Amino acid sequence: MKTDLNLLRVLLAVHETGSVTTAASRLGISQPATSAALGRLRRALQDPLFVRRGLRMHATPLAQGIIGKTREVIDVIDRDILTPPTFNPSTVKGTLTLCLSEIGEAVFLPDLYRLFKVQAPGLVLKTQSLAPEELDQAMYEGRVDLSIGYFPDLRGADIYQQRLFSHVLVCLVREGHPLRGSRITLSQFRQAEHLLVRDGSRTMEMYEQYVFSQGIERHVGLQMSHYMSVPGLVEESDLMVVLPKTIAERFAQNGRFRVMAPPPGFPRYDLKQYWHRRFHNEPRSRWLRAQVSELFDGYLGAAEPVHGATVEF
């Protein structure tokens, strides 16, 4: 026999109040609707369930036998199923996985790690880099909680995104480099000896596409796949490297490098956080997105929500 859960709620309310009218008021439904529900349950169980004595309805033996289990079932449903889950970062344990590029790790990870150590010490922060064709599925399955950076391929209807700040490209040279001034002209850019980093990130891929689309020919003296060796190579040569401003300024903090603006017209790229619609309302995901937004919202410019509707945290 299949029974509507609401019928069991009526059974329990009538037993506890001793009155159909009072039970209806407790349940927030009309008295006729309560009576009709009780009638359906009586027919299903083939028992009157309650017999009136004086002003109160008293349970029959059959009703008394199922009321205890009914209360347990309803308590479990209300407490464990229908109650919205909560997330307490100070006590939770587990792993949060972010998808970041090499540049993204340098920009985002230090601040996120410091925040996690304070607010969520039981969470282990894990990062990985995935190809675009893998990332969407990993986010759908929950293997990646959040992607942060420049991911123009994440455009599906099930992917939410929020802009954090704009990615600005600059040129980095050693202190004492023959190039002077705060901005490089297009002619100087063409003539300079370039250190080219192709790390597989979409930002630098877009930069390469821009250079190609503008017909800008460069003199590439050295090409490499990672950024770790960039400072040593640039410091000891006349090589110039194009980097995101956030990375270039970190390299320049020691005073041995100069940051120069590229020729006019170089594009800016929005860095965003991305998450899957399946986890939009999950408390852990909401907390994580709020922390990222608070840390980096407007980092290099005003942030704006990006999706079909306003993105809420």
The end-to-end span amounts to 43 Å
| Superfamily (CATH H level) name of the largest domain | Periplasmic binding protein-like II
> Beta-strand percentage?
15-25%
State the CATH class of the largest domain: Alpha Beta
Proportion of residues in helical segments:
40-55%
- Per the principal axes of the C-alpha atoms, what is the gross shape? rod-shaped
Q: Tally the helices: what do you get?
A: 11
Mean pLDDT: 86
Number of strands: 13
The value of Rg in angstroms is 31 Å
Structural class by SSE content? alpha/beta
Helix and strand succession?
A: HHHEEHEHEHEEEHEHEHEHEEHE
Task: Going across the biggest sheet, name each strand in turn.
Answer: 4-3-5-12-6-13
Q: What is the domain tally?
A: 3
Residue windows where pLDDT falls under 50 for at least 5 positions: 301-313
CATH fold-level assignment of the largest domain: D-Maltodextrin-Binding Protein, domain 2
Architecture of the largest domain in CATH?
3-Layer(aba) Sandwich
Q: Please describe the biggest sheet, giving its number of strands, its sense, and whether it closes into a barrel.
A: 6 strands, mixed
